[in-house]
Amino acid sequence: MFLAGFTSVTSLEKNTSWSNYWQYVIKIALHLLLPTFAIGILRAILTLDIAAIGNEQWFLKMLFRYLLVFATINWLVHSIITFIHRNKTSINISHRWTYIKYPVFVLLMFFLSKTKLPEFPFYFLFGYFCKKHQVPSIIMRLRSHKVFWPCYIMIMLSTIVLIYSMWALSRGHDFYNEPFWVLYKQYITIYYLFRQLCAFGWILLLLPLFLFLSKKYTWFSYCGSKSLGLYITHTFLLHIVIEPLHINYTNNYMGWISASLIFIALTLSSLILIKLFESNRYIHFIFLGGGTSVLKSKAKQ
What is the pTM of this model? Predict the structure, then answer.
């Protein structure tokens, strides 16, 4: 969710007119919802389970909801300010009122969320602010300082300790998925605090790596460019191939080895499946969320 906010700043900031806003809504619908329901239909055909159509790819549906709500709020706030202050000097002065979209977004997403996980909007906004206020360039400048890597290692060790502490204290609780209100009623809100510390620890760890690795095109860069396709195909293969095997993951070294091997096999199979989907522009458009640009670019070829 952090990366969603981080990578969506430019496109979200352009939604100041009705035409731009409507084009953006169509774009994210084709990019996220079309492959969600297409892969759900394919799974329903293969498994003879009609319920798979609506239950497939929950994250993409949630991401679409976040982008749609934020883009709508951004367009409404800008339209209202432009209407009230018609001269340019007034609009510049009223820019401080654009910050109202952030608390409105958090409140709306809290009430619209089925799982009532109030931290997700904060992850999205944190990524949005990091990109908008040029945090990546700040990190790149700090990398040359002597204290950067010791601080980075300290954050990494602290995050590992926090994750281990959550695992040790969980005692059978699903501390990752349980909402705040459930933890509050059970008098174990400390899990919620740990969860946030772990999340922001991971963000602080992965953001510098994301920036450093993106300077050169590597295998990780390739996988990053296929992240949407990897998520779709990985989930599809997990439901179609792995779940019917009823593999019992035990909490020992054999369980960890089995899970790691399955993850590697699924990732490689997903990359192969993505290549097959990309060989046809219509399949790429429908199942991988390539958008209309895929149809136009491959038609020229």
Answer: 0.78
